Amino acid sequence: MRRWRIAVPMLTLCLLCACGGKTNDPLQAPMDYRTDLLANGGCAFELDARVETGDRLWELSLDCELDANGDGTVKVLAPESIAGITAVTEGGTGSLRYDGVSLGLGTLPGTELAPAAAPGRLVRAWARDWIASAGQEEDALLACYEDGPVTVRTWFDAERVPLRAELAIDGTVRFFGEIRNFTWKAGNTDETTQENLG
Q: The pTM is what?
C-alpha cells in the first residue's frame, strides 16, 4: 500500500511536467500570428499579384497598409500605366474609395470584390476567419482559412512572416500573391492623445 502512495503522486507529477513542454500543434503558428496581427493593429507589405477577373488575368504590384479588419490603403506600383492609383478599403466589406482615377479591373468571379480590395480580404482572413487546417509544406507552413465559399491559403516562414497567399472562391483560385517587405503596422491605433490632467 505504501508504494501506491508514492507512485501515484510521482506519476501525476510526471504527467504534469510532460504537459508543460512545447506544443507541436501546427495550428499554433497561425493562432500566434493572429494574436500578433491584432496586437499590432495591422500590417504593411508589398504584393506581386496575379488576379483573375472574368476572362482577364491581371498582373499587379501593390503596396498595402491595412488594419486587422482589412481596411486601409492599397497603392498600385505596377504596371506603369496605372502606377500611383490608390484605393482606400473601408468598412470591412471590401468597398473601395479612390482619390481621383479609379481602376476598372472588374471583380473576382463569384464576388463583388475588386482586385485592389483582395489584399484587405487576405488580412481579414488572417485576423477573423476560421483556421481550417495548418501543416508543413516544403519550405513553409501552410495555413488555410475558411469563410463560406472563400478560402484563403497562406504560406508562412519559420518566423511567422507570410510569404505568399491565395484567395479561392468555391475552390477556384482567383487571386495569388507573393508577399515581400512585410512589417507590422506602427503603434497601437487605440492610443489617446488627450492630456493627462490627473
A: 0.79
CA dihedral 184, 188, 190, 196 (to 10 degrees): -170
Whether the ω angle into residue 79 lies within 30 degrees of 0, i.e. cis, is yes
Instruction: Kindly report the number of other CB atoms within 10 A of residue 70's CB atom.
Output: 26
Please name the residues in contact with 77: beta carbons below 8 A apart, sequence gap of 6 or more: 46, 61, 62, 63, 83
Task: List pLDDT tens digits, range 20-39.
Answer: 445 589 899 999 999 999 99
- State pLDDT tens for residues 45-72: 999 999 987 778 889 999 999 999 999 9
Decide: residue 45, CB within 10 A, 0-12 exposed, 13-18 middle, 19+ buried.
Answer: buried
Going from the N-terminus, what domains does the chain have, and what CATH number goes with each? 26-180 (2.50.20)
Cα-based distances in Å from 150 to 72, 134, 168 = 21, 17, 6
Q: Which of these, 67, 70, 52, lies nearest to 106 by C-alpha position?
A: 52
Q: Distance from first CA to last CA of the chain, Å, rounded?
A: 65
Cα 139 versus chain centre, distance: 19
Q: How confident is the model at residue 103 (pLDDT cuts 50, 70, 90)?
A: low
Residues 6+ apart with CB under 8 A from 135: 26, 141, 142
Scanning 59-157, the segments in alpha helix (DSSP H) are 118-128
